[in-house]
Design goal:
Length: 328
């Protein structure tokens, strides 16, 4: 029993020569029928020739059912009375055994832009996260038989050629819709798993752990690996995957925004204070080295206090002229 895709190695004839042969064969059948009807042979012979002519016409119709057309990045799965016989991936117009049931599948790359879903991160915070990834079918056997894709087979004896093409196109659409549905469910599960492995972001005290916000390529690589593991059963390969939407859930978004604002203010204040202390230190060193003025500890404390107020204050400093001494 086959468990993976194999290339069809049976009878596969070029379509154009077979098309010409069948047209000529059909013309020959018509000419033969005209000659039989116009002949004066006995009735018992006439009946036998008419039956023979009808058999030839049925064979010609049977030959018409064997033609198939494969475009670039398409494949046809062949089933012979319930048994998988192989997959044709060659492009062109071919003729195969009409008894084969043909299931057409597309191998082209497709996008999946998943809507953001609500999940809990590693810390339990509710977040909204979405993803986009590119996928394609690489194993037609698994895509056809390992999952329920409800692919409609092409009938062996269609009434018109247009009916064959319409049915084939409908079968491709139904098959790909089923694969998309399977892909969506599994991709949501993979995204939830990845989101639960990491926190949305870290506070300054938690170190440099990878988070969903800062992970970038690492998070995308883990997501791609998870998707490939889950979709391998359907013969699907994920070419690229990435997180394209990330935000706190609405119920905590306002609180988390205030927290981020507070962290930004604290970080800015720390830089301002560090800079101000450095400037004060530099000023005292310059005054001491160049001996511009001798300052005792009390005067240095007053100078440091005034400079820090000026440098760290929210508003512009208001100068006050001291008309007395430094001590009055």
């Amino acid at each position: 029993m086959e468990t993976k895709e194999k290339i069809y190695a049976g009878l596969k004839l070029p379509g154009i020569p077979m098309l010409i042969f069948n047209i000529l064969f059909l013309i020959g059948i018509i000419v033969l029928f005209i000659n039989i009807v116009s002949s004066n042979m006995p009735d018992n012979y006439l009946t036998g020739w008419i039956i023979f002519n009808i058999i030839l016409f049925i064979i010609s119709c049977f030959i018409w059912a064997g033609f198939t057309q494969i475009e670039p990045n398409e494949a046809i799965v062949l089933i012979f009375f319930g048994k998988y016989s192989g997959t044709i991936k060659d492009n062109g117009y071919f003729w195969v055994n009409p008894f084969y049931v043909k299931k057409k599948m597309t191998l082209r790359a497709r996008n999946m832009d998943a809507e953001p879903i609500k999940v809990n991160d590693k810390k339990g915070n509710p977040i909204m996260i979405g993803q986009v990834f590119v996928w394609r079918v690489v194993d037609t056997y698994k895509s056809s038989f390992d999952i329920d894709n409800m692919t409609a087979p092409i009938p062996v004896f269609p009434r018109r050629r247009a009916a064959i093409e319409a049915q084939a196109f409908s079968g491709v659409i139904e098959s790909m819709k089923a694969l998309e549905s399977f892909t969506k469910v599994q991709s949501d599960a993979a995204l939830r798993s990845v989101a639960g492995m990491f926190a949305y972001d870290n506070s300054d005290s938690e170190g440099a752990e990878i988070t969903l916000r800062s992970g970038g390529k690492e998070i995308n690589d883990i997501l791609e690996k998870q998707l490939n593991e889950r979709l391998a059963i359907a013969g699907i390969e994920v070419i690229e995957a990435r997180v394209n939407n990330l935000a706190y859930a609405p119920e905590i978004a306002a609180v988390m925004l205030r927290r981020q604002q507070a962290e930004a203010i604290i970080s800015a204040r720390e830089k301002i204070v560090d800079g101000a202390v450095g400037m004060v230190k530099h000023a005292l060193q310059k005054l001491s080295e160049e001996r511009i003025i001798e300052l005792d500890d009390e005067k240095k404390a007053a100078m440091v206090s005034n400079l820090l107020v000026v440098l760290c204050g929210e508003e512009n400093a208001q100068p006050i002229i001291n008309t007395g001494t430094l001590y009055n």
